[in-house]
Amino acid sequence: MKPARSLIPIGTATLLPDTARRVRRLEDQLLAHLACWGYREIILPTFEYLDVLSVGLAPEVLEKCYKFADWTTGRILVLRPDVTAQIARIVAMDMGGMGLPLRLSYRTTVFRYEPEHAGREREIFQVGVELVGADDPHLDAEIITLLIESLKHIGLPDFKVSLGHVGFYKVLLERTGMSEAAQKEAEFAAAHKDLPRLEQVMSQEGVPRKKAHVILEAAGRYGQDDVLQWGRKAAGRDSSLKKPLERLAKVYELLELTGVKDHILIDLGEFRGFDYYDGVVFDVFTATLGYELGGGGRYDHLLGKFGRSLPSTGFALDMDRVFAALDQREPQTADGKPPILLVGPQKLYSQTFRLAERLRKLDVHVIQETIQGEPSQFIRHARERGQSLATSTVILLGAPGLSHKVVQLLDYSSKRTRPKISQVPIQELPAMIKAQSYANL
Length: 441
Description:
This protein has helices spanning 17-36, 50-53, 59-62, 83-94, 137-153, 166-174, 180-191, 195-204, 209-220, 225-235, 239-257, 319-329, 349-360, 378-388, 429-435, and strands spanning 40-41, 47-49, 67-69, 76-79, 102-111, 123-132, 159-165, 222-223, 264-267, 280-286, 294-298, 312-318, 340-345, 366-371, 393-397, 406-411, 420-425. It is α+β, with helices and mostly antiparallel strands.
């Protein structure tokens, strides 16, 4: 028997109306909050020329790209695999005349091939920011504080940010004399906290036991001030190790001043999954999920690969994961406004439409429907449709025995089995709905 063929590509998702509304509301909340910090939205192209974008992507990322030919030029195109490299390309090539530093925000989708068993999506919805044009610990602190305040803003207080510096661990690995390939493998193992694999790599490379012990301990250490103290002891007089620790300590000090220290854990083995990070880096985790919600860090050398060297930092959130974390904590946190159902007969279609528009101008979500059949069936139909739409309010225009200037209101807000029914003059209806805040139920 042949295996069943999937109807949609693996690693993609369809968001049905209720979920889509909640996700869009969540994105809007985040973008509005980012705008309050001066981050302006940028909309990015879905695909790029591979030969242009590839200079900013690591080989392992390039291997996961979806590629296809441009029928016009014959050049190879790539679906956007990473936003940071794309913005680096845009800023370096197209935005040279804008004042620095640039504060940019975005919501978009990235596409990366992942094996079916990897448990990751191939289509990833992201909201993020990039701060381009200045190298300053205050801006590192701004980005991390913005991340934390954004998550608090959408109602996710139960999370931690794992904070480290790529330079510290890279220098530790370089000091071992391992081959470049082995160092990359060790970085990958450290990033995933796979200490047995990390130990195996160092053993195969003949790393002295004392150096191996420090590297393993650094990868497993996380906490607060005590971790920095351990790092300083491990660095000794090595200036290449002391410099990233000093930067990390300064950023940590600034985060204490912004009042977000309780969300921070210092992790000297912190790595991000992209080669372009070269400074302070971070990931964000929550107790409800077993994987990161997002992260970011400093990438001071990436833009130089596209022709204009500018220091930069930023972060991105995986919106599917953020949504899942919120959903497990409080299912209604990001829910939208319930719609009002407005129904009327065919002969009153014009009046029904005008009333719907008046209500929509009050930011009320209105579903307008035309009822067919006998007037005696109007109330029954309106009740059934209201229940199927899970609305708290049904407005009926043209109900039997009522003037066309009066509507019948079915109020389900008290969750009773049968609605409370009342008659309201049309002219008074918009003001009444606004006063009673139906739009915010």
